[in-house]
Amino acid sequence: MTLDVGRIDPALVPQRQLPGGGRMPGIGLGTFGSDHAPADLVAAAVGTALEMGYRHVDCASVYRNEAEIGAVLETAIRGGIARDELWVTSKLWNDKHAVADVAPSFERSLRDLRLDYLDLYLVHWPFPNTHEPGVDVGSRDSNAKPYLHDRYMETWGELEKLVEGGLVRYIGTSNMTVPKLRLLLRDARVRPAANEMELHPHFQQPELFEFVVGEGIVPIGYSPIGSPARPERDRTPEDSVDIEDPVIVAAAERLGVHPAVVCVKWAIQRGQVPIPFSTRPSNLLANLRASVSEPLTEAEMAAIAGIDRNCRLIKGQVFMWKAGQSWEDLWDPSGEITPP
Ligand SMILES: NC(=O)c1ccc[n+]([C@@H]2O[C@H](COP(=O)([O-])OP(=O)(O)OC[C@H]3O[C@@H](n4cnc5c(N)ncnc54)[C@H](OP(=O)(O)O)[C@@H]3O)[C@@H](O)[C@H]2O)c1
């Protein structure tokens, strides 16, 4: 079935250059249903998005919808979208960091997504600590561990083998900090091509962003709209709301768009690759159109640079490894890796 959803020519969407000649579409579609959007709904959104002109899909095994998305990708490729026009990312979940688990977990994602290679494979979190879907903020992994660099490098070594075997074009990181990335860059044989990190107007992470860009690593920005439908475990009373910020609202009024679209435009113009999630065709199209329509002015960009509140939404409490910690410890606030 072809939906009358509107279409943007994918050739017009900005691309990010990668080492070795790869080109990542400058906006992708997020696929984390935040524990409430079921797999078939997210997969249908991927199908609609591909018809509209999206060519970049951000997946992960822990989102528990790769098999449904894979069926949609297969249909799209059979329907005429060339595999090399698509950019598909997946991620290694935290309970699969052990050397023996990496390749089987990758292969499961590849099989579920019905592909013979991935464009990008990320280590989802630097901690081997996990949680069941839908848990509350107080939930802890009884086997939780701190970041241990030697162990991370063992996991990374398995990702490097996937590159060398031609099964994935690029590998990368997510939820990292500057000190952890420094160690990885020191010790990696295959450098990370991308770092996926939380980025939205109220959480701009300027130091990490500059570091990543300076190293030639593509910053992929997650929760670019401020994740208004995120799970309860990721909400605190202090959290601010990007799409209600007067600076964002003023730019949206000037352009006649929803404030979410301003967040997406800001992300692309700043130089990160946003991966907004939606299951609504009108919002999917508005976000893709944001990448090709009238840009924000320099004054609007400068005003948005001034509204950073350092408001991290995905704090990661469920990944803490010992009693008495604060979630900030996960993010190396002193500039050094938080000791075990
Ligand atoms: N690496 C990681 O650890 C990590 C962590 C979190 C997220 N991610 C990735 O990042 C993706 C995006 O993050 P997210 O899902 O947390 O949040 P988000 O993209 O910031 O926000 C998604 C929400 O915004 C709404 N929305 C989207 N476009 C809109 C528009 N044009 N107008 C109005 N509302 C709009 C959606 O509602 P409707 O569905 O109603 O449109 C949805 O509720 C995830 O899906 C996932 O792929 C990665």
Keywords:
TIM Barrel; alpha/beta; 10 helices; eight-stranded parallel sheet; 340 residues; two-stranded antiparallel sheet; binds NADP nicotinamide-adenine-dinucleotide phosphate
Strands, total number: 10
Strand order of the largest sheet: 3-4-5-6-7-8-9-10
Helix content: 25-40%
Radius of gyration: 19 Å
How many alpha or pi helices?
A: 10
Named once each, the bound ligands are: NADP nicotinamide-adenine-dinucleotide phosphate
Distance between the termini: 54 Å
Give me a quick take on this structure.
With 340 residues, this protein is of the alpha/beta class.
Helix-strand blueprint:
Elements: E1 15-17, E2 23-25, E3 29-30, H1 39-52, E4 56-58, H2 66-78, E5 87-92, H3 99-112, E6 118-123, H4 149-164, E7 168-174, H5 178-187, E8 194-198, H6 206-214, E9 218-222, H7 246-255, H8 259-270, E10 273-274, H9 281-289, H10 298-305
Parallel strand pairs: 3-4, 4-5, 5-6, 6-7, 7-8, 8-9, 9-10
Antiparallel strand pairs: 1-2
Helix pairs in contact: 1-2, 1-9, 7-8
This protein binds NADP nicotinamide-adenine-dinucleotide phosphate.
Structure report:
This protein has 340 residues and is α/β, with parallel strands linked by helices. The protein has a single domain, classed as NADP-dependent oxidoreductase domain (TIM Barrel). It is 34% helix and 12% strand. The protein contains 10 helices and 10 strands. The strands form 2 sheets. An 8-stranded parallel β-sheet has the order 3-4-5-6-7-8-9-10. A two-stranded antiparallel ribbon has the order 1-2. The radius of gyration is 19 Å and the shape is globular. 42% of the residues are buried. NADP nicotinamide-adenine-dinucleotide phosphate binds next to helix 8 and helix 9. The site of NADP nicotinamide-adenine-dinucleotide phosphate has 31 residues, from helix 8 and helix 9.
